[in-house]
Design a protein that fits this description.
Blueprint: E1 2-5, E2 8-13, H1 26-31, E3 54-58, E4 64-69, E5 71-73, E6 81-84, E7 87-90, H2 93-107, H3 111-118, H4 126-135, H5 141-152, H6 161-173, H7 177-190, H8 204-216, H9 220-232, H10 240-252, H11 256-268, H12 275-287, H13 291-303, H14 312-324, H15 328-340, H16 347-359, H17 363-375, H18 382-394, H19 398-410, H20 417-429, H21 433-445, H22 452-464, H23 468-480, H24 486-498, H25 502-514, H26 521-534, H27 537-549, H28 556-568, H29 572-585, H30 588-596, H31 600-603, H32 607-616, H33 620-640, H34 644-656, E8 664-667, E9 671-675, H35 681-702, E10 708-712, H36 714-726, E11 733-734, E12 738-742, H37 743-750, H38 753-759, H39 767-777
Parallel strand pairs: 9-10
Antiparallel strand pairs: 1-2, 1-3, 3-4, 5-6, 6-7, 8-9, 10-12, 11-12
Helix pairs in contact: 2-3, 2-4, 2-5, 4-5, 6-7, 6-8, 7-8, 8-9, 8-10, 10-11, 10-12, 12-13, 12-14, 13-14, 14-15, 14-16, 16-17, 16-18, 18-19, 18-20, 20-21, 20-22, 22-23, 22-24, 24-25, 24-26, 26-27, 27-29, 28-29, 28-33, 30-32, 32-34, 33-34, 33-35, 34-35, 35-36
Length: about 800
C-alpha cells in the first residue's frame, strides 16, 4: 500500500499492518518523516497550523481506499497534542523522546539539526531532554552534546546536575577532554556556592566528576587547575573520591609533597578518610621520611572500626621506612605485629628487614632473619646474597661470608665483580693468601674482570708474604687486561724496600725491566739507599747511574749520605767502591772534596778561601738543613783523616754562614757558652777547639773575662769532650749535660803553653794515633747516632 499526498507523490512504503486509515497510529503519522513538513501550506497566524491537502490512501493496485484530512498540530494551549482528523490526541513522552533521539542521531550537529529541532510540533522540557540524552548511544557523545547545546539556548532549559554528570560520563568514555574542560567552564558559570549549606545549584556531583575524570586520565595540570578554580570560587563539597584521585595522581607523578598538600586540605575541609585514603597516605608519608605522621595515621586507621584494616602494603612500607631510618625497634615491632594479625611476611619485607639490620651492624639478627626467610620457603635473590656476603666480609666474618658465598654459587647465581673483590680484599687484609688466590682464580675462570682494587690488594699481600713469582704472574695478568701497572709494580718494589728485603727488591726491579715496566726516580733513590745500607755497593752504583741518567738531580743530602757510608767504612775495597759511587753522583760537593784534599799549588788558593767559595754557592733558603748535615758528616771525616786545620776552616765558614746560629752565645761579662748538642762527634770536637781559641783571644787580647764559661754537650757528647779536655788539664767540671768553669780559672788555663799549642792545632802531632782513637770514640759518623761508650784517655805529646 502506498501513501500519496494530493499534489505531492511520496514513494514511501508504509508498514504492512497499515491497511486502513483508522489503523494508522496518529502520533506516528504525525511524526513519521521530516519530509512531510514540506507538504504543509502556510496559514495565517490567527489560524491553527494544519495540512490543508487531502491524504489519499491507495492499495497495491493503485485504487483509492479512502481519503481524509491528516494529522496536524492542535490549537494553541494544547501544544502536547495533535489533531487526527477531528480527534484530539496526546503525544506520548516516549515518542517525543524518540523523535529527539532520531533527529540527534541523523543530523548529529550543526544548523540542520538546530532547524529540525526548532520545527518540532511539541515543545521539549528538561525532563524530556534528560530522557533523550540517556537514550543516545554512549559510544558517540557528539549527538548528545549537540542536543544539549541546542537545549541550553531554549527558554525552557534548566541546568541539572544529573544531566551534566551524564554528559561528563559520555565524554570521559570517548576521551574528549577538551569538551570536558569546556563543559566544566559552563558548569562553573551556572553554579552558585554557599558556604553555609549545600545548594541545589552547586552541581557538586558533576564538578567532582570533572576532577576525578581528569585525574584518571593523568591530566595533572588541568585537573589541579580545575580543583584550584573550584576552591578559589568557594566550592566546599569535594568528596573523598575526588581527594583520593588527586592524591593518587600526584603520587604517580612523583610529587609526594603536592599530595601531602591535598591531604592537608582534605583534613582541614572535614572530609572523611576512607580505606583508600589510608592506603595511599600511610606508605607515601613513610617513604618520604615523615615517619611520625605515618605512624599517627596508621594508629588512627587501626582505631577506626569497619573496613579500615591495615593491609600488607602498609606494613611493608612502614617496616621498610623504619628500618632504613634506623628505627629498628619500631620496625621489629611492626614486623611482629604483622605476623600477629595473620599476615605472612613477603620476601620484600624479609629483604628490607635483613638489609636494615645488616646496615645497622646487627649481623646476628640479620643472619637469624635470613635463616627464617629460607625456612619459610623464600629463595633469597641475587641482591640479598650479595649484601649478606659483602657485609659479613667487611665485618671480618670471613667464614660466614664464605659459607653464604658458596650457597650463592650453589643456587645458580653468578657473583658480581664487587662481591669477588670484597671477599678477596678482606682475605688479603688479614694475610690469607690461599683463599684470596682461590677466589681470584674462580673469578677469572668465570670470565669476570677483576678491578683495580682487587689487583692492588692481591699484589700487596703477595709482596708482604715475599711471594715474588706469584706477584709477577698477577701483575702480568693485570697488564694483559688493560690496566696501567707502573704504579702497582712500584708499590710492590716499595714494600720490599721498606721491609728490608733488598735482594728481593733488586730481583723485582730486574723483572720490571724485562717486562717493560718503568718505575720513578724516587723509588730508585730509595732502593739505592737500601743497597748502601746493606753494603751492596756493586748493585748500588748502577742504580745511581740510572738515577743520574734519567735527568734526576743528586742533591746535597744524597751525596752526604754516601759520604757518611765512607766515614763508617773500614774495608779498603769497599772504600774504593764508595768513592766510585761518590764520583758517579756528579755533585759539586765531590769536586769540593777532591779540591779540599789537594795541595795549595793545585788548588791555587788557600783552604779557607776555597771553603768560603764553596759555601757561597749554596742556596740556604732551600738547602740550609742539607748544608748543616753535610758539615756534620764532613767534619767527622776530616777529624778521622787527621785534617784538623781543614776541619777548623770548614767550621769557621759554616759558623760565618749562620748554619749554627745559636751555637756560641756571649752574655757580656756574665757567661759565655758553646752548645754542641746538635752536632756530630767530629763537629763537636772541632767546634770546642775552635771556640775555645776564640774565647782565649777575647780574654787575653781584650781583657774581657766572664764569670763563667759553659760547654753545653748533652748526655751523649759529654764524655767525648771531657776526655779531650782532660788531656790538657782543663778546669772544666763535668755535670749532667754541661761542662762549666769559672772565667778566672779558664783565663789562667789559657796562659799555659800547652793550651796554646793545643788550641793552635799543633798537638797531637801523630795523625795515625788521633785517627785510631777517634775511630774508637765514634764508630758511626751520622749526626743522629752518637757513641755512648766513654772513650779512653787521649795521649798527647808535648
Amino acid at each position: 500500500m502506498l501513501l500519496r499526498l494530493r499534489g505531492l507523490n511520496l514513494s514511501q512504503p508504509l508498514p504492512l499492518f497499515l491497511r486502513h486509515p483508522k489503523t494508522l497510529n496518529p502520533t506516528l503519522r504525525c511524526l513519521s518523516s521530516p519530509s512531510s513538513s514540506q507538504s504543509q501550506t502556510p496559514v495565517p497566524s490567527s489560524e491553527p497550523a494544519e495540512w490543508t491537502d487531502e491524504i489519499v490512501y491507495l492499495d497495491e493496485s493503485g485504487d483509492v481506499i479512502c481519503s481524509g484530512r491528516g494529522l496536524r498540530p492542535a490549537e494553541p494551549g494544547r501544544d502536547a497534542h495533535v489533531l487526527d482528523g477531528g480527534l484530539l490526541r496526546p503525544i506520548p513522552r516516549s515518542a517525543a523522546a524518540s523523535k529527539l533521539v532520531e533527529l540527534a542521531r541523523r543530523w548529529r550537529w550543526g544548523p540542520d539539526l538546530d532547524a529540525h529541532l526548532d520545527r518540532l510540533p511539541f515543545p521539549p522540557d528538561p525532563s524530556l531532554l534528560s530522557v533523550a540524552l540517556a537514550a543516545l548511544p554512549a559510544a558517540d557523545p557528539q549527538p548528545a552534546l549537540s542536543l544539549f547545546r541546542w537545549a541550553r539556548r531554549q527558554p525552557w532549559f534548566a541546568p541539572s546536575d544529573s544531566t551534566y554528570a551524564l554528559l561528563l560520563d559520555r565524554l570521559f568514555a570517548a576521551a574528549d577532554f577538551d569538551a570536558i574542560q569546556s563543559l566544566f567552564d559552563d558548569i562553573l558559570k551556572a553554579a552558585t556556592f554557599d558556604d553555609a549549606e549545600p545548594s541545589s545549584t552547586s552541581f557538586s556531583s558533576s564538578l567532582n566528576l570533572v576532577v576525578q575524570f581528569l585525574c584518571q586520565a593523568s591530566k595533572l595540570e588541568i585537573s589541579f587547575s580545575c580543583f584550584k578554580k573550584l576552591r578559589d570560587a568557594g566550592f566546599r563539597e569535594f568528596n573523598t573520591q575526588t581527594y583520593n584521585s588527586l592524591i593518587t595522581l600526584f603520587l604517580c607523578k612523583g610529587l609526594p609533597f603536592k599530595a601531602f598538600e591535598i591531604y592537608e586540605s582534605m583534613e582541614s575541609s572535614g572530609c572523611s578518610l576512607d580505606a583508600s585514603t589510608y592506603d595511599l597516605m600511610v606508605p607515601a608519608l613513610a617513604k618520604s621520611g615523615r615517619l611520625d605522621a605515618a605512624l599517627r595515621l596508621f594508629q588512627e586507621m587501626k582505631a577506626k572500626e569497619g573496613s579500615c584494616r591495615p593491609g600488607l602494603p602498609i606494613y611493608v612500607a612502614l617496616v621498610d621506612s623504619m628500618g632504613k631510618a634506623g628505627r629498628l625497634d619500631a620496625a621489629v615491632g611492626l614486623y611482629q605485629e604483622l605476623q600477629s594479625v595473620g599476615y605472612r611476611p613477603s620476601v620484600t619485607m624479609y629483604v628490607s628487614m635483613i638489609e636494615s639490620l645488616v646496615k645497622a651492624g646487627k649481623l646476628d639478627a640479620g643472619l637469624k632473619l635470613w635463616n627464617e626467610m629460607k625456612g619459610a620457603g623464600f629463595r633469597p635473590n641475587f641482591g640479598s646474597y650479595t649484601m649478606m656476603v659483602e657485609s659479613h666480609a667487611r665485618s671480618g666474618r670471613l667464614e660466614t661470608a664464605a659459607s653464604i658465598f658458596a650457597d650463592m654459587e650453589r643456587s645458580g647465581f653468578l657473583p658480581t665483580p664487587s662481591t669477588y673483590a670484597c671477599l678477596i680484599e678482606m682475605h688479603t687484609a688479614v694475610g690469607q693468601v690461599d683463599p684470596a688466590m682461590r677466589l681470584y682464580n674462580s673469578m677469572t675462570n668465570a670470565g669476570l674482570r677483576p678491578g683495580l682494587s682487587t689487583f692492588t690488594s692481591l699484589l700487596s699481600v703477595l709482596a708482604n708474604k715475599k711471594l715474588l713469582d706469584l706477584a709477577a704472574k698477577v701483575l702480568l695478568e693485570m697488564k694483559a687486561v688493560g690496566f696501567a701497572v707502573d704504579v702497582n709494580a712500584s708499590d710492590v718494589l716499595m714494600i720490599y724496600i721498606k721491609g728490608g728485603s733488598t735482594e728481593l727488591a733488586l730481583r723485582w726491579l730486574r723483572f720490571m725491566g724485562s717486562a717493560g715496566i718503568r718505575t720513578n726516580n724516587f723509588i730508585i733513590r730509595q732502593l739505592f739507599e737500601s743497597c748502601m745500607k746493606a753494603g751492596l755497593y756493586d748493585s748500588a752504583q748502577p742504580l745511581l747511574e740510572t738515577y743520574v741518567g734519567s735527568a734526576a738531580k743528586v742533591d746535597l743530602i744524597l751525596y752526604t749520605s754516601i759520604l757518611a757510608h765512607l766515614v763508617r767504612c773500614k774495608d779498603e775495597k769497599n772504600e774504593r767502591a764508595i768513592m766510585d759511587i761518590m764520583s758517579s753522583a756528579k755533585h759539586r760537593a765531590h769536586e769540593f772534596m777532591c779540591g779540599l784534599f789537594t795541595g795549595p799549588e793545585q788548588r791555587k788558593k788557600p783552604v779557607l778561601s776555597f771553603v768560603r767559595e764553596f759555601f757561597q754557592e749554596i742556596d740556604y733558603e732551600l738547602e740550609e738543613s742539607a748544608a748543616r748535615y753535610f758539615v756534620n758528616v764532613l767534619l767527622n771525616y776530616l777529624v778521622l783523616m787527621g785534617q784538623m786545620n781543614r776541619a777548623r776552616c770548614v767550621w769557621k765558614v759554616a759558623y760565618e754562614n749562620k748554619l749554627f746560629p745559636k751555637a756560641i752565645v756571649f752574655d757580656q761579662h756574665i757567661a759565655w757558652s758553646l752548645d754542641v748538642r746538635n752536632l756530630s762527634v767530629g763537629a763537636a770536637l772541632v767546634s770546642v777547639v775552635h771556640t775555645l781559641h776564640r774565647f782565649r783571644k777575647r780574654m787575653l787580647y781584650y781583657g774581657v773575662v766572664p764569670r763563667r764559661i759553659k760547654l753545653v754537650t748533652g748526655p751523649t757528647l759529654k764524655m767525648v769532650v771531657a776526655q779531650m779536655l782532660q788531656a790538657v788539664e782543663s778546669p772544666f767540671e763535668v755535670s749532667k749535660v754541661v761542662l762549666r768553669a769559672p772565667g778566672d780559672s779558664v783565663l789562667e788555663w789559657f796562659k799555659k803553653p800547652i793550651v796554646q799549642q793545643f788550641l793552635l792545632n799543633e798537638i797531637p802531632s801523630k795523625a795515625d794515633v788521633l785517627m785510631h782513637k777517634l775511630n774508637v770514640l765514634f764508630p758511626s759518623s751520622a749526626p743522629e747516632v752518637r757513641s755512648l761508650s766513654p772513650p779512653k784517655p787521649l795521649a798527647v805529646s808535648r
